[in-house]
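TEACHING EXERCISE
Course module: macromolecular assemblies
Task: Read the component lines below, then compare them to the predicted structure of the full complex.
Student: A.B.
Group: 4
Components provided:
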Amino acid sequence: MTSAFRPDTELLRVTGLHAFYGESHVLHGMDFTVNKGEVVSLLGRNGSGRTTTLRAVLGLVEKRSGSVMVNGRETIAMPTYRIARLGIGYCPEERGIFSSLNVEENLLLPPLVGSGGMGVEEIYEMFPNLAERKRSQGTRLSGGEQQMLALARILRTGARLLLLDEITEGLAPVIVQALARAIENLKARGMTLVLGEQNFRFVEPLADRHYVIEHGRVAEMVKKDELQAKQGLLHQYLGV
Amino acid sequence: MFEWLGITPQGLYGQLLVGLINGSFYATLSLGLAVIFGLLNIVNFTHGAQYMMGAFVAWMGLRYFGVNYWWSLILAPLAVGVVGIVLELTLLRRLYRMDHLYGLLLTFGLALIIEGGFRQAFGISGEQYDIPEALTGATNLGFIFLPNYRAWVVAASLVVCFFAWFVIERTKLGAYLRAGTENPQLLQAFGVNVPVLVTLTYGFGAALAGFAGVLAAPIFQVNPVMGSNLLIVVFAVVVIGGLGSILGSILTGVGLGLIEGLTKVFYPEGSSVVIFVIMAVILLIRPAGLFGKEK
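Instructor-supplied answer key:
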């Protein structure tokens, strides 16, 4: 954690991040890094601070302090829309599908924040259900389809760093499998992903590294090849 | 057709026309209020003052600078819009995280200050603004003589309302506006500069009120209190239509203008309260309004 910032490999470096909602102090000095092309999970029980961490990276909390470096730029004092334009795509826990927009409008809503985003046709190939229901009101889709739409719309924008919050929550196993394939596909394209998850089984095969979060700070970092050895520890933290 | 009630067809058509004109103003003003409320979460009590400013800018333009009606139709809304943008940047911006009540107090206070200023400068007797020459006279439609200017007011308001509806419901900019109304934080997280969107929206809403003011100048007297008289009714219209829908506020505005006109024919004593009676009934059976969604 103390090594100097390495701009050639690091895409995100969070150091000593504190976040607040009103009077409540939610993050107590988060430290983690995400390298380019890596899939990293933020694991933790409910209320551990996973969602707040992802929101705080984008400045979506009332107050934050510490340091959040995105691709070598300090963002702690930036407004949210400028942080996003550094090439971040965000998929919120509640999915955030707009009910006053139809499926295609939802898909086309986020402005481009980088080059090399996926084309609309390519996205419809990846998620054929969305193509069939382009003209439906966004919130008329099933939960799984809404999740796909929430993911699909940030693939168009050219974002290289995707922050995905609890994308499997409440979804049927077949849809969770489809999402896992989509994530592998994105990783193969060189995207960098941060998955906030409670579902360890989902991220276990996908992530290169896992950060275990407890009480608003990182309690443990586990690499993929250490999973076997540290299983007891994970069990203790997550109850899996 | 209603002769047995002592009502002549001319009287009926005449009042329907008046209703249509009032309805056009209700529609234009409630549309602006709905757009502002949607994105800013502020009930804009300054709307009537902005409408009055539109009329006064047109009048002053003609009186002091020889700016004709047609130029005023463009310049006055721009001027009112710019004043709106300054108000948003300097004052309204501070209130978004606070209770609705503060927005109400601020915009109401601003309306009083603006009206007071104009009253101080121009008195309350009102100024005359002549109908532009191209729109004087009337056209005989067979069943009624339609004053050309009034026909123009209805047509221009409906075109502007339709244009606003089209921009909001069918363009990318409108998609930002709708998304920002629902979830401004998420829209920011996608990289959209929401504060600028908010400022421009307020400017647009104010400009729409200014436009209605210019249209009104030749019909009503240009008077510092012309806005506050109208605004009370417009708020009732907004409550009836609900704040959820752009098309809803247009339809409700025109519809209530017509109902008011009809009431003047069939039960003149009730014409000034009919909108408020409808408001009370609607609040009882559909608290979110005819087209509104429960928040």
